[in-house]
UniProtKB/TrEMBL annotation:
Domain Glycosyltransferase subfamily 4-like N-terminal per the UniProt entry, residue ranges: 47-118
Keyword Transferase: yes
SUPFAM superfamilies: UDP-Glycosyltransferase/glycogen phosphorylase
GO terms, biological process: lipopolysaccharide biosynthetic process
Tagged with keyword Transferase: yes
Protein name: Glycosyl transferases group 1
GO molecular function, one term: glycosyltransferase activity
Keywords: Glycosyltransferase, Transferase
Glycosyl transferase family domain sequence ranges: 145-266
Length: 296
């Protein structure tokens, strides 16, 4: 046993992954006589007692092609069982809540929203004198992230530059699209603080932390108008249709040509990301857990 932040932390068992979760974790919980177990990773032990299940989204149902067959089969088989057996389900946005309940009606009377937030290591607006010209985005090959539209848009915008965080696209990209590979927090912070705009083109997001990180560092957000993003970003972003590359091209041109719009969105973004904090989310989670203990 060791401590983190004054709290005891136990390491139990020798297995890993789903085997540890389904075999060794329930055994530990029985030995510890645990009242509640909080499972934060979209799955949990079927044999666990007092389970609080966190479902961040149900993208594996809406966009199954982005998941390996074995993982998709596991989630589709296990999730309805876990939802029925759990004492409470938590998720990260009201949009995600509606999507979960539409697929799993059993969650309807026991689901709470506990929002995400920005890590303290990734906050700070950056030097005011920095010249911001380029655009920044995260790249992922899955269908739900919809990143192909980014390459298409910047192919039509040879005078603008897009910097891509993450694995390089498999297909060739134009010279103004610059793959950066994987970055550590310090490198990512620097990219945020030098970007004019951060683009998130997703078709599905349970919450969407990166646009808030961008706002916390002075970048303007251009966002898909799909899924939870309008809920999380409210009026602080410039929205586009994620299935219409011409709409994204027009919004990028508009932002690049309108300093007043940039200033207004930067100000709204600075207010927006502050609406969320891990402290308030922890307090909300604590409320949920305490209400379950009182009801047990």
């Amino acid at each position: 046993m060791r401590e983190i932040g004054g709290l005891p932390v136990y390491q139990w068992g020798h297995l890993s992954g789903y085997l540890w979760e389904q075999i060794e974790l329930p055994r530990f919980l029985r030995n510890a006589n645990s009242e509640l177990v909080l499972c934060l990773g979209n799955t949990g032990p079927i044999g666990g007692r007092g389970m609080v299940l966190a479902l961040h989204d149900v993208t594996y149902l809406d966009f199954p092609g982005g998941y390996p067959f074995a993982m998709r089969l596991w989630l589709k088989t296990m999730t309805p069982i876990l939802v029925r057996r759990s004492r409470e389900v938590i998720t990260v946005s009201h949009t995600a809540k509606r999507q979960i309940v539409s697929h799993y009606p059993a969650a309807g009377n026991k689901i709470a929203v506990v929002s995400n937030a920005v890590s303290g290591e990734l906050t700070g607006s950056g030097p005011e004198t920095v010249q911001r010209h380029d655009f920044l985005a995260f790249y992922h090959a899955s269908e739900s992230k919809n990143c192909a539209i980014l390459v298409e848009a910047f192919r039509a915008l040879p005078n603008e530059t897009l910097r891509l965080v993450g694995p390089a696209p498999e297909s060739p990209v134009p010279p103004n699209v610059i793959p950066l590979g994987r970055l550590n927090d310090s490198q990512l912070l620097d990219e945020y603080q030098h970007a004019l705009g951060f683009i998130i083109p997703s078709l599905s997001e349970g919450f969407g932390i990166p646009p808030l990180e961008a706002q916390a560092n002075g970048a303007v957000v251009l966002s898909s108008n799909a899924s939870s993003l309008p809920e999380v970003l409210a009026d602080s972003a410039l929205f586009f249709n994620p299935r219409d590359v011409s709409d994204l091209v027009d919004k990028i041109k508009r932002l690049a040509a309108d300093p007043a719009l940039v200033t207004r969105l930067r100000s709204l973004g600075s207010e927006n990301w502050r609406r969320y904090s891990w402290k308030s989310s922890a307090e909300r989670l604590n409320e949920v857990l305490n209400s379950l203990k009182r009801g047990s």
